Amino acid sequence: MAKLIDLFALAIVAFVLLLPQPTVVFSPGFAGDKSDLDRIAVLEDSLYRKKDDVEVAVDLARAYLRIEQPVWAIATLRPYKGAGSYQVHQVLATAYATVLRFDLGLAEAESGMAQCESQGPRCPEVTQIRLGYLANLMRENAQKGIDASTDPVAAKRMVQAALRATKAQLPESKPTSSPPVKPTSPPADKPTTPPTAKP
Asked: Which domain holds residue 63?
């Protein structure tokens, strides 16, 4: 009887040890606020339905940058580089700067500036300022000889400073001030008399 129990226990141990173990661990591809994830899901669905919609592609790439996925932003906009949209080049330049690819970022920033010049007033002044900042960032890294592969800390600091600078705001318009209204006073030749109280 004892041998039967031992044999049964050995069979249980062998069964547990020989069970197939999970070799793949699934984890979410990215993390972020629920609002960001919901927006990305909507944009991905919209771009899947309308693959030639450049504005949706730009919005999706910006959403990827918001959750710190610049590589996904690059992959999203790469097919639209020839669409003639300055926004595509602007977002691509930002994404390439984030991944410290200054040569590609400079090319995209210059392409975006050229698109802005060709479109005239349709390209906002703020966008031109941001593209100029990005282009200067790439050139500055090239002039200083900062190599992202050997000195990534210095390169990231320059990128972060430049990306903060690209959040340019239009100068606030000064409120139109109307001339102060002077209090009306009675004429000097007609002195005022205080009202007399009725008895």
From this structure: 31-165
Contact 155/148 with Cβ under 8 angstroms? Answer: yes
Q: How many domains does the chain have?
A: 1
Residue 109: inside a domain: yes
- Tens-digit pLDDT profile for residues 82-115: 888 899 999 999 898 888 888 888 899 899 999 9
Phi, psi of 64 (to 5 degrees): -65, -40
The total of other beta-carbon atoms located within 10 Å of residue 108's CB is 27
Residues 71 and 103: their CA atoms lie apart, in Å, by: 16
In a domain, 175, yes or no: no
Phi-psi region of 60 (alpha: psi -120 to 50; beta: other; left: phi over 0): alpha
Predicted confidence (pLDDT) per residue in 106-144, tens digit: 899 899 999 988 888 888 888 888 888 888 877 877 666
Cβ-count burial 114-138 (b if 16+ within 10 Å, e if not): ebbeeeeeebeeebbebbbbbbebb
* Residue matched to tokens 């102060």: 180
State the CATH number of the domain containing residue 159: 1.25.40.10
